[in-house]
Every structure is written in C-alpha cells, then in structure tokens.
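[step 3/7] inverse_fold.run input=structure_tokens len=524
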C-alpha cells in the first residue's frame, strides 16, 4: 500500500471521511450493480449557478477519495429534474412574456427564450454540461424527461403504485392538514395541455399500473403511471430516484436536511437501501441571502471564470463545506492566492499532510507546481497604481522583479495578469478612494520617501519590508495603522499587500514618485 493510500485511510479530510462511510456499505459484499454510484441532482428551473458546480465538484472529490481507498469501480451521475413544471418565470432570462403562457408545463416542453435549443430545459441542461465539461468532470448526464419517458423509471413507478398507501402515509405526516386533503405522490401530465397537474387521486390501480383523477375542469381521466404520463412529487421523486438508480452517495444543501428521513423511508419502501448523504451549508450573496438560480443573485460560474482560473473556484468549494460562505466577487482574489500557497506547500509535505491539502483533492492527487511568483493581490495593486489597461503593462514590472519569468514559461502568471486587469477595471477602479495623510502619517511618509530615495541596496522584498516597518514603528501603535495609512493614501484601498513586496515589484523610484504624488494631494 502506498504511503498516500495508507494516510488516506485515517485522514480527517472531509472527502476521505465521507468516502470511508460509503466503503462501509460494501464491507461484506460488493455492489450487485458492479459499481458504487455517486449522484448529484440539478433543478433546471433557471440558469445553472455556482452552487450547482459546487455540488458536483465536492461529490467528485468524495468519489476520487473513494477510488483511492477502494478498488470497487465508481460512477458519477448528474441528474436533471427537467420534467418539473415551470412554476414561475425566472427573472434573468430574455423574452419573459414568451414563457408566461407555459407555466406548469415541464421545463423540456417550455420554449427556449434564448432561441438556441428545443426547450428551456434543454437550454439549461446544455449550460450545465458546458460548465461541468469546462472543469473536466467525468459524469453521466441523465434527463428526468428521458428517464421517465424511456421506461427506465417504470419498474419503480409500478412499485410506487403497489405501495402507494405506504408512501402516502410517510408523506402525509409531513404535510399540513389542508395540504393532506389534495396531496398525491403522483402528478399526472395532461395529454392535451401538457401541464403538470396538482390534483388528488380518485383511484390508484396497482394491478393495472394506472391512476384515475379529475382534471382541473372536472373531467375524469385515467393514465398509466409509466412512460412519462405522470411524474412524482419532488420529495417522493428524490427517494424513488435513489431506488431506481441504486444511489450510494448524494450530497445536498441544508435546506433539504429536514427531508432526509422522508427520502430515506421512501427509498426503503421501494426496495432499496438509502444512500449515504452529506449536507452542506448554503452559499450566500453579498447581503447574506441564499443564492437563487431564479433570481440570479451571487456569482455565476462564467463570472468567476472572468476573473480567475478554474482551480481557484474548486479551492473555494473545498474549504469548510459545512460553513455558510459569502459567494461574492471580493472572495476571488483571496481564493486565488490561498490556492497557490497550498500548491507551493505541497511538495515538501509528508503523506498525511498531502492528503489533507485541498490541492490534492482538487487535482485528484496529480498536483501541478505553482509558478505564481507574484501573488494575485499584488497584481491587483500593481494594476491599480499603474492604471493598467492590459496585462502587457503588468509584465513590464513583473519581468524587472523576476527576470526569469515570461508569459511562455509562466502561463498561470500570465493568465492571472489578464484576470487582474479585468478585476481591477470592474471592481477596483470604480471604488478607489484616496485620502490625504494626517500630520503624523505625512511625517512617516516623508521619512519613507527619503529612505527609499537613498536606497542603494538590493531590491529585496524582505529588506524593503523591514525599511517600511522602521518608518512606522515609532509613530504608530498598533503598527497596522501605519499600513492602513499606506493603503488608503497611496493605493486608494482599505487593505493591501505586504508593502515591501509591492515596492520591490512596482520599483523603488516609482514608489518614491507615488509618495510624492500623494503628499502633493494629486491622488485625491
């Protein structure tokens, strides 16, 4: 057994803890289906959001961890609930009037407002697959529409009809009395209007596999439960899908956690063992509100990738999945720099530390080196003081600071320079707010300016940082007030990089000129 695999067997990293719980399912006998099935579900009622990516990313991390500690084959299924009726028109799509007349129809029967696919559901499914393919996930995509209509779900649907009363007993306990009067686990799809109907059942015939009900206009109708003529309500559908596919592991947000016993019971009633689950905390927007795909708040996958590489997003998803996290644009620079810090640490770590390092799980154990010789936060500050409009401007400073670096030899750094310029233009430049120094700050800045002007030592970040410390140590208590002053007066920001490193990158004479501009009041 390799050192890494041995370390994985006892690692407290959450993907390994979850993987070991899945492995316990098959301590005595391997799965009859021949593989362990990891599933992630997706409701395509709106454009895919970053939480959807997080679910697949984290599930993949658990599956990779499982592959490391077990030789049982694995499969990842991404299931789209695209047979759901569209309950409201999303607020972030074109031609919303076009969709209004299609309310309650399955998403795969609603026209695509973007005009690129055969239906709104197909459009959103394609968006999801494109996003997942961008990150190189290996998965099987299953459409609920195809799953119901092709007959793949028929065996479980017929079993649900046979055990209708037992499943209904589970569901009715969770419903208010008023809702109990009209509830049914089956939702017929009107053969003419195509709408999903929320109507009570007059009869469920287990022998024939049919349901009888009155439509909204009072017409009695009988339909088979097979072939996509009916669908299951979403809570029964959850457990039934687990039973139909033989799901071994699924994670979902904490808003589902109270329903977990319901899902499990229905899965068992339908003849299968309930899977292992992992409940994660929700993503929040800048105002602390839950991210919603229908309202379009928060950061989309495309938006994140406008400002940073894919690995930084995977790093953000790995961190503390059971802690609610703000998902706004200001988290991106920190995620980029922390990801590269972990990359740099990885080669010198022992096996135990390596399997607990986020980059091990992001890259499935094949961890690349980092060539980010300049942190992303530093690139942002450089873009700000240089008012950079392209990454070539930044490379002029980078190559003076690190002569061995080039766009060809350091592609990660080159990409980061481009991201930094874009991030600066969209988020830093509009909000820069310089201020004049106080008398005390002016005195310290003048001393720093004089010492930098007289500097004849090497352009070394640590030595320059010591110089900056010395100029503020006697005047500021706590010392962080000195650095806050540097950021606010010279950079127009409330926080910033290690200032010695900034001077080394930007240039000593350039920093002297910057201080002169600030002392003259020209930056305000």
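[step 3/7] decode complete -> sequence:
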């Amino acid at each position: 057994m390799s050192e890494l695999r041995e370390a994985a067997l006892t690692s407290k990293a959450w993907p390994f803890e979850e993987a070991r719980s899945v492995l316990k399912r098959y301590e005595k006998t391997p799965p009859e289906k021949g593989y362990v099935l990891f599933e992630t579900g997706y409701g395509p009622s709106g454009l895919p959001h970053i939480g959807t990516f997080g679910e697949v990313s984290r599930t993949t991390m658990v599956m990779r961890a499982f592959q490391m500690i077990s030789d049982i084959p694995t499969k990842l299924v991404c299931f789209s609930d695209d047979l759901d009726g569209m309950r409201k028109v999303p607020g972030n799509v074109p031609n919303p009037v076009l969709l209004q007349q299609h309310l309650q129809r399955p998403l795969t029967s609603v026209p695509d407002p973007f005009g690129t696919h055969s239906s709104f559901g197909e459009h959103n499914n394609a968006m999801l697959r494109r996003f997942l393919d961008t990150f190189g996930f290996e998965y099987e995509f299953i459409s609920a529409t195809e799953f119901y209509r092709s007959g793949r779900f028929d065996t479980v649907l017929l079993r649900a009809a046979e055990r209708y009363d037992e499943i209904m007993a589970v569901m009715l306990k969770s419903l208010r009395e008023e809702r109990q009067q009209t509830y049914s686990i089956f939702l017929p799809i009107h053969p003419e209007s195509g709408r999903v109907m929320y109507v009570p059942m007059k009869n469920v015939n287990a022998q024939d596999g049919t349901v009888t009900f009155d439509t909204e206009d009072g017409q009695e109708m009988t339909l088979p439960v097979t072939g996509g003529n009916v669908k299951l309500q979403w809570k029964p559908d959850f457990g039934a899908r687990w039973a139909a596919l033989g799901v071994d592991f699924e994670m979902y947000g904490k808003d589902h956690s109270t329903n977990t016993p319901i899902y499990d019971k229905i899965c068992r009633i339908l003849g299968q063992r309930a899977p292992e689950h992992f409940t994660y905390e929700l993503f929040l927007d800048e105002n602390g509100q839950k991210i919603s795909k229908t309202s379009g708040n928060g950061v989309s996958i495309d938006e994140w990738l406008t400002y940073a590489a894919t690995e930084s997003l995977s790093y953000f998803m790995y961190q503390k999945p059971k802690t609610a996290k703000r998902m706004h644009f200001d988290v991106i620079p920190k995620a980029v720099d922390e990801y590269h810090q972990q990359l740099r640490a990885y080669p010198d770590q022992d096996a135990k530390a390596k399997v607990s390092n986020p980059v091990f799980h992001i890259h499935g154990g094949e961890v690349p080196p980092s060539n980010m010789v300049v942190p992303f936060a530093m690139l942002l500050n450089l873009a700000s003081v240089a008012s950079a409009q392209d990454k070539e401007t930044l490379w002029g400073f980078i190559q003076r600071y690190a002569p061995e670096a080039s766009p060809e030899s350091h592609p990660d750094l080159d990409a980061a320079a481009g991201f930094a310029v874009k991030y600066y233009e969209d988020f830093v430049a509009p909000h820069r707010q310089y201020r004049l120094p106080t008398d005390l700050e002016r005195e310290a800045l003048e001393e720093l300016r004089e010492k930098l002007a007289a500097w004849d030592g090497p352009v070394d970040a640590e030595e320059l940082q010591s110089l900056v410390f010395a100029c503020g140590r006697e005047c500021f208590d706590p010392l962080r007030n000195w650095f806050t002053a540097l950021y606010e007066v010279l950079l127009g920001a409330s926080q910033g990089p290690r200032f010695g490193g900034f001077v080394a990158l930007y240039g000593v004479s350039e920093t002297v000129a910057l201080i002169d501009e600030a002392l003259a009041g020209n930056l305000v």
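[step 4/7] annotate
The longest helix spans residues 50-69.
The first strand starts at residue 36 and ends at 42.
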